[in-house]
Aminopyrimidine aminohydrolase (Comamonas piscis), 221 residues
Amino acid sequence: MSFCQGLWQANQALYQRTLDHPFNRELAAGSLSVERFRHYMIQDAHYLVAYGRALAVAAAKADQAEGVVQFANAANEAVVEERKLHDGFMRDFGISAQDFATTPLTPACHHYTSFLLANSWSESYPVALAGLLPCFWIYAEVGRDIHARSQPGNPYQAWVDTYASEEFHAAVRAVIATIDRVADAADSATRTRMAEAYRYSAELEWMFWDSAYQESNWPTR
């Protein structure tokens, strides 16, 4: 069993909880409220910029030139996707540039992005990558499941279809291969830190969807 396969197996229950979350069940059924979807899109756009920054830091720490290219390209793609949200889905769902600019990060989004940036800056290259992996892998697998279960006439079908991109799934497989390689060369203490970073990010993935479903915001605002 590879290192990443071990991570997946160790966190299988959390992944299943993510699949079973009402946000994802209702998105597949097409019954998710527009308000919850809009909340998610705005926070996702905020998240993608921070994720791109964290990926760029990982690229700078890469142990091989191929890693520099791989994660610099991933950072670029994250920011490009954030721009596409503004030009596509946000426009389609009535979210103006002003709406986005005046909506702060929720506690869950702030927590997740702050962790990713701190982990990428302060930890070693292998641990930085492990913290970044859930957004690639869990998002891809949840998306595959939603796409397979999407109901006819789903008002979110265009969004759901973005999960089916073979290009994205190929990129995920490449990231997994890189992490397995660096894990094979790491000592046991580093591998433990990698597993901890993965678990923390996986929990924050769940919290991100839950925050959107609850339409959460800062309790003091």
Residues 3-213 form a domain with the Heme Oxygenase; Chain A fold (CATH 1.20.910.10). The chain is about 80% helix and 0% strand. The radius of gyration is 17 Å. The CA atoms of residues 36 and 215 lie 6 Å apart.
